[in-house]
Structure formats: C-alpha cells, structure tokens
Amino acid sequence: MQVIHERRFNAWKQGLSSEAIAELEEVAPFAVERSVNYMLSLLPDVEVLRIRNLHIAINSQKERGRKYALAMERLLASDNGHDLDRGMTHFERAVGLAGGGVNVTVDNRRQTAILTGKDQPTSFEEIMDQVRKRLLAERREQTQIAPQENS
Q: What are the residue ranges in the chain where pLDDT is below 50?
C-alpha cells in the first residue's frame, strides 16, 4: 500500500493535479488527495511547506507557459501588422535573437572585420578555443567519474 501512496505523492510533487493522477490510475480524486495528505503527514513541517510551495510553483510555471504560448500564437496569426510586429519582437526576445546586438567594425586597409558583442567570440580561432576547452573539461569529468565507478 505504501508504494501506491509514494507513487501518487511523487506524481503530485512533479506538478500533476490530483484529478490528473486519479484519471491515470482510474481512481477517485479523493483517494489521491488522501495519499498525498498521508505522505505529507509523515514529513516535518518545514519539508511539507517546501513541497507544497514547489507544487504551486510548478503549476504556476506551467500555466504561465500555456498563457504565453496562446498569446504568442494569437499575435503571430494576426492580420493586424502592429500585432504581428509585437509578436515577432517577443518571439525574437524569447529565442535570443534580439540580444544586445553585434557591432561590426570594418578596416578596409587590412581587409578585416571585427565583430564585437556581449560574450560573443570575435573570430573563428576564439570559437575553436572555446570548443577545445569544453572538450577537455568533458574528458576530465569522464576520467574522474570512471575511477569512482571502478572502486
């Protein structure tokens, strides 16, 4: 019986509603609420408060995401040019296309172009250096994890 309570409680902690869990398990929502309350009664008060706040935060984030997606869909599907422009602006901000911008300085005498932007590499060599650093860091992590697994 404890396994059932734990499974329902873990699903509830991940943001599912009692009704959604009940529908998945084909039981009454009241049974899920009882399981959740039983598991909460076993925890200290501080942990109960933390878990309830986490549940509320997850559900709030999901609801905001739903509302944002609907609003973006309406703006991007609009025939009104102003709404479409606002939608594209928000979309660019959301995906990071409308960052701080990039400044380009062209030197015609040396035939070079210098890109300057916030935390952006300015040349191909810098990009390759960053890739090499990441590869080395990943290899170090893997070699540190491998001996721990063997022991």
A: none
∠ CA 132-136-138 to the nearest 5 degrees?
115
Domain limits, the chain: 2-93, 102-150
Residue 148: its pLDDT value, please?
Answer: 66
Distance of alpha carbon 61 from alpha carbon 94, whole angstroms:
15
Backbone φ and ψ of 110, nearest 5°? -95, -5
pTM: 0.53
Looking at residue 47, what is its pLDDT?
A: 93
Closest CA to 112 of 100, 122, 120: 122
